Amino acid sequence: MQRLFSIQNILLFSLILFSSFTVAVESNPVDSGEILSETVATANFENSISLFTEKGFKKKIIAVETLATVDDSRVLGVFKAMMTNKLYFVKEDKQVVFLEKNDESIKVSDVISNEILDITSKSKLKKISVNNKLRRLLRGYIATLSIKSTDDDVRAAAVRQIMKNINENSYALLVKLVETEQNETIFKDAQVGISLWELNSADKQKKLTAIAHLTDSLLPEVKTKLESIALPDADGNFLESDEFVRAKAKSALVKINDRVAYYGVLENVVFGLSLGSVLLLIAIGLAITFGVMGVINMAHGELMMIGAYTAYVVQQIMPNYIGASIFVAMPLAFLVAGAFGVAIERLVIRFMYGRPLETLLATFGISLILQQMVRVIFGPTNQAVETPPFMSGSLEFNPVFAITYNRLYIFVFSIMVLIALILILKKTRLGLQVRAVSQNRSIAKAMGVRSEWVDALTFGLGAGIAGLAGVALSQLTNVGPNLGQAYIIDSFMVVVFGGVGNLWGTLVAAMSLGVINKFLEPWAGAVMAKILALIFIILFIQKRPRGLFPQKGRAAES
Amino acid sequence: MRNWLKKVAQYTVVSAAVLGFTASAQAADTIKVGVLHSLSGTMAISETTLKDTVLMMVEEQNKKGGLLGKKLEAVVVDPASNWPLFAEKTRELIEKEKVDVIFGCWTSVSRKSVLPVIEELNGLLFYPVQYEGEESSKNVFYTGAAPNQQAIPAVDYLMNEVGVKRWVLAGTDYVYPRTTNKILEAYLKAKGVKQKDIMINYTPFGHSDWQSIVSDIKKFGSAGKKTGVVSTINGDANVPFYKELGNQGISAENIPVVAFSVGEEELSGIDTKPLVGHLAAWNYFMSVDNKENEAFIKSWQEFIKDKKRVTNDPMEATVIGFNMWAKAVAKAKTTDTDKVEQAMIGIKVPNMTGGTAEMLPNHHLTKPVLIGEIQENGQFETVWQTDGTVPGDAWSDFLPGSKDVVSDWVKLKCGNYNTKTKKCSGQNYK
């Protein structure tokens, strides 16, 4: 029996080896599956599973391919677990298991029987690791296995995945799907996949209908395929002999290219507005301290850094509620950074009103102190702030146009902060006092405004907003001691450009700088775009020294 | 009475020990080791770790009894990520502190700043970071990787194992990425890659808005051919870059990114979920399963008193450099620069990946090249590695100017000997 089994195994291996060669040549998971299921009847779930404990990625590929030939409802689960790093084996007896992690405890269950095992320590298990080749392979198999799923989202994802690598077998799967598919988007997607394959057929009529179907699709695969038909290859020969088909393909291509170009412009605008919203967020706080109070605060960047570190600390305290931690971090960062702001104003800046040079130097010193303080407390290395799930990924409109969620949220957030700030300044008692003090300190004092108290609160407000910006930045970039330095110049640029003391000016300046930058970038490169933007601002300030929206009236003179 | 005697005896022993100690201290006979790494400013993030590594090595060497019967003494200065300050601090270390050797620098621009000073004062510098090559000074030992020990094998891997046909060379705008990309471009073209299949992109230091560039890469990669990104993006700019890649749905399976400046230390500051599967090429990974490595990680975590601290490639290079220097000093029986320099060549010490590092006549090392995929826990899983070690080549064979130049400090006594003109152009580098 033992012997027979080993012979079987050898046979199995040689066949698999053969099929893995065809995979290497065609990189086509479905094909190989077909070959195997016809020839190897011996591969069953139990014995294929045992192959997974072998060392080396090449052996694991064989294991996956073998398992894919098995018609068993458990296969999909194994592939999915492997893909998400949940497939392990017990070191002692090489039993393959699923591992579920909840907070502290782990749940280990046998892959074959699905029984829960009595293992509480991860050290007894070894992960069945995957590499890119395996992941690609798994994704293909998962897609073909889940195309019959009743869940619309799962099926849609499966169709999308299959379309990336269309071949005879996946074509057959799609044709079968289309017959019964009720969901319109999935139907359309599948239709595109079918047409992609039918372009290879010899039938001219079939080709023409396929091209007609593909005209509406923006998938990159469609474009590449049509290009291969319509345009000559490197030697000047056409793959397609029929001139009429070529012309049709060409006109479809023109239509697609037009739409891609349109979305390209739209994308640039969106990117520009998104960059603008970040600029706005980092500049609003400064617009208060520099614009309204006239304090050149070089430590503004470090106040953002404090906000970002607050977000980090909050995440450390509540590691299991990453999504909620952001909402806790926001008010907290406002308070912490605001407190730092009030302290800086009370301890340093209030002795220096009306002496901008000294303020500049003093706040620069403060910025160095704060940086070094963070280095001492948290160390010089960056800290990892996790992105909550709802802020990852992107909102896809079509294959060539998508907006990433984190940018979308930050855009909305920065506009909300701006509106809130304007409301505070225009509608509250504090805002009235702030404006009064900034316009004429002595008259405001004469009216009974406690100007010192107002100064401290205004500075605190600006600092608090910097803290909020820090929370947003923690989702975009590094949280480290240098975070502030990277943004300080940009924030001053926006405030000066927009006109000192004008919040609407800050908004317009931030957005226009963002959009200008993003339109220059593809054309001039990121380095040059930044230089050009700076030159533009220098020239602009020469012409209009008070920025886009200068303050008018008596307040402007003081 | 007995008690009294005992006490006297104790006092004598203690005072003798104290006297002996002060005597040895008074002789001031220590070997001084200069540490020239930024502890503040932008580079502090990477260089502080290397400072600690040197301090650990000094402590360990002293436990073993020092060198030539003397204790080692570390002299730490802070060049504050300020390139000209690196030159000044080097002068201070050699002239004022009279150090016998310096371990230091990270960026190429800081090394270029130190170079004239260290040559003028005939000092000794160990440089532990992978760099662009095109240099070989008598006074510098390069223990990091030359381009042929990192960039070229990584490209080979992508080309042969992954099947990449279209190439994005993305880098930060300064000397290391520019030179590396120049070498890679020449190499790719020599391998038959067409100009239209190569996209080169530079970004400023600390670039944080990657939307357009990542979108361009996505478009470039959707032309039907397998596309790969070779990233020489430095330091802080990497986090927003990888975040943007993840958010725009570019996974390692579609467009793999192989990075030359992203190691365990950088990953420990990133949320690694969206990065899984992307690649890095180094000569050392913390995950390498090996006794030497295990011992190294253990002593490092004990020294730094943090069980979670990671190790990385420049740290390994620092340790190898330090061990080689110690061996060379013991061999030369002096710390004199010229004698140690000659003793260094041919010195062999074990590296942490199970092989041996040998100092070559061109002041570079033999190193294995490892390609790793980023895992969810911030470590690398080795997916490919060279058989044995690769000798470091100071002057690239793929650049027209440096093809004919060789470096040999034993036979030729020259760091840039032109084999065509048969001339040594001295110590002036372009």
- Poorly predicted residue ranges of chain A: 1-5, 15-41
Beta-strand residue fraction of chain B: 15-25%
Structural class of chain B, by secondary structure, is alpha/beta
CATH-wise, what's the superfamily of the domain at 151-259 in chain B? Answer: Response regulator
- CATH class designation of the domain at 151-259 in chain B: Alpha Beta
Helix content of chain B: 25-40%
Tell me the major beta sheet of chain A.
Answer: 5 strands, antiparallel
Structural class per helix/strand content of chain A? mainly alpha
Strand order of the largest sheet of chain A: 4-3-2-1-5
Structural Rg of chain B = 24 Å
Q: What coarse outline of chain A follows from CA principal-axis ratios?
A: globular
Number of β-strand runs of chain A: 7
Measure the end-to-end span of chain B. 81 Å
The run of helices and strands of chain A is HHHHHEEEEEHHHHHHHHHHEEHHHHHHHH
State the separation between the terminal residues of chain A, measured CA to CA: 100 Å
Query: What percent of residues of chain A are in strands?
Result: 5-15%
Order of strands across the widest beta sheet of chain B? 7-6-8-9-10-14-15
Mean pLDDT, all residues of chain A: 84
- The average pLDDT score of chain B comes to 88
| Oligomeric description of these chains | heterodimer
Total number of domains of chain A = 3
What does this structure look like?
The complex is a heterodimer of chains A (558) and B (430). With 558 residues, chain A is mostly helical. Chain A has three domains: 2-136, no CATH class; 147-241, no CATH class; 276-484, no CATH class. Helix content of chain A is 68%, strand content 6%. Chain A is built from 23 helices and seven strands. In chain A, the strands form two sheets. Chain A has a five-stranded antiparallel β-sheet. A two-stranded antiparallel ribbon of chain A has the order 6-7. In chain A, helix 11 (220-230) packs across helix 12, helix 14 (322-347) runs antiparallel to helix 19 (451-474) and helix 20 (483-498) crosses helix 21. The longest helix of chain A has 50 residues, at 243-292. Mean pLDDT of chain A is 84; it is low at 1-5 and 15-41. Chain B is 39% helix and 19% strand. Chain B is built from twelve helices and 19 strands. In chain B, the strands form five sheets. In chain B, strands 7-6-8-9-10-14-15 form a seven-stranded mixed β-sheet, sandwiched between helices. A five-stranded parallel β-sheet of chain B has the order 2-1-3-4-5, with helices on both faces. In chain B, strands 17-18-19 form a three-stranded antiparallel β-sheet, with no helix packed on it. The longest helix of chain B has 25 residues, at 2-26. Chain B starts with a helix and ends in a 6-residue tail after the last strand. Chains A and B meet through helix 6, helix 11, helix 12, helix 15 and helix 16 of A and helix 2, strand 7, helix 7 and helix 8 of B.
